[in-house]
Design brief:
Length: about 300
């Protein structure tokens, strides 16, 4: 039905839609974490452990042609697929939750969202993506929008230095995770990468939970519902869609679109948690979206 010229454009359109939907799905994660009845590291463990069954089901039910085309699909995949993305995502979750304890929420939110800078550098050095000056302008615009979104809540000072460094480390881990997934997507399906990386992440976070001295048992059924929502919506659906998109879109552009997440999270916090939004924050969200639009024109042909 589609010509050879228009077909890649159609694939990119679907991938862009998946990327935006994935970013919106992970935007629910701050709300789920806020409502969780267990500690932050334990919440990260459940986020991944409870996501394994639906991810396994999706991987098991993948189209037969994908299963036949995927090398080693019926056995344990190569070590890189098994370990690298999972270890990087575990580091992202662990240091993100730890940063919140040593710095303000505003600081940790802003600094952890510097991941697009890390991804852009990695995409240029490792993935050999062409980074145009127009895209760098779009990246700067979006980062400025993220700073406006945090607003006056951002604070500088000696009391926050350690936590701020942890938040920057979070950005490095998530940026490296996106680069690893984008690199592996050339040889492996998103279902395979998500399944094994999630399993590895859960295995890493379980002993980390014990080391942090956190309880593993929610007190109520509502607490379990929150954890299932975090695992199935934010991780299995959200990160799964992002992993799919990374196989069809530039990693640098994809990481920038994920900045939709703090914009949507601020909106959801206002809608469901009663958190106020200032004029500066609203303007910041608009600037982030404008930066993403500029990036689309710079990097994509759709």
């Amino acid at each position: 039905m589609f010509s050879s010229v228009s077909s890649p454009h159609l694939v990119q359109r679907w991938a862009l839609a998946a990327l935006i939907l994935g970013a919106l799905a992970i935007a629910f994660s701050p709300i789920f974490v806020r409502l969780s009845e267990v500690g932050p590291t334990a919440t990260g463990f459940y986020r991944t452990m409870l996501a394994v069954p639906p991810l396994w089901l999706v991987w098991h039910l993948r189209p037969a042609r994908e299963a036949a085309a995927a090398p080693g699909a019926s056995r344990i995949p190569p070590l890189g697929v098994l370990l690298l993305p999972g270890l990087l995502f575990a580091g992202d979750l662990f240091f993100w939750h730890l940063a919140i304890q040593y710095t303000s929420v505003a600081n940790s939110t802003l600094l952890s969202n510097f991941a697009p800078v890390i991804v852009t550098l990695g995409a240029w050095l490792i993935l050999r993506e062409k980074i145009s000056p127009a895209f760098l302008v779009a990246l700067l615009v979006s980062i400025c929008g993220a700073m406006m979104l945090v607003g006056s809540s951002f604070q500088l000072g000696g009391d926050y230095v350690f936590g701020d460094l942890l938040a920057l480390l979070t950005a490095c881990f998530y940026g490296a995770y996106m680069i690893a997934v984008a690199k592996l997507r050339g040889r492996h399906g998103s279902q395979e990468i998500m399944l094994w990386s999630t399993l590895v992440c859960a295995v890493v976070l379980l002993p980390a939970t014990w080391l942090m001295g956190e309880s593993l048992l929610p007190a109520t059924l509502g607490g379990w519902a929150v954890l299932f929502g975090l695992a199935w919506i934010s991780h299995a659906l959200g990160q799964g869609l992002i992993a799919y998109a990374l196989g069809h879109l530039p990693a640098s552009f994809s990481s920038l679109v994920v900045l939709v997440q703090p914009v949507a999270a601020a909106f959801f916090g206002w809608l469901w948690l009663g958190e106020g939004l200032s004029t500066l924050q609203i303007a910041g969200g608009i600037v982030v979206l404008f930066g993403i639009l500029l990036a689309r024109r710079a990097q994509l042909k759709v």
